[in-house]
Amino acid sequence: MPVEVVALDLSAPAAAADLHRAVTDRGLHVTSLINNAAVGSFTLFADADPGQLATEIALDVAAPVQLTAAFLPGLRHAGNGFVINLASASGYLPSPRMAVYSATKAFMLSFTESLWTELRGTGLTVFAVAPGATATGFTAHMGPDAAVLTAGKVRRPEDVVATALHHLERRNPAPAVIDGRANRLTVTLTRFLPRRRTAALMSRIFDPTR
Fold this sequence. Notes:
four-stranded parallel sheet, single chain, Rossmann fold, 4 strands, globular, alpha/beta
């Protein structure tokens, strides 16, 4: 399969428009969109670099919204294809030391669910995939304290892909799917806890001194 590469900083304000223009100029027909790019940081919010937080919001929220807005008209016109948004299990949970990242993923879940509702019956399939810790090198730039994020069982990228493909093949896929049995269990069980208990539990899990 031929591969076309367009090198862009997706956190830049004009990135989505630039990518759409580049694709159009090359005469490419886009049938599907996967919003996968993201960045995170692992630190107390009070100690975080404001510039880094702005980049997280730009890449994790603004970019997928703008990319979807740019490519959705063509996808709707074709009447088939899919939009897959990469969320995270942390989008369902408070994540101390990753407050902004988990909030961006909660946004992605809500955004995707709304799109799923709006686009039903159009022929487009829309859903979010919510993985937990995955062996992608995502935490490599976060410093030694972030090792706590991968201290337990870590999923492989191909596991996440398999989950997405299996969900895509469903007759009527739900607006979101959580990757990994342990992640599904954690999210499900915390729904039965008071939010303050869930926050306290996640604080212990994310404590780098534990």
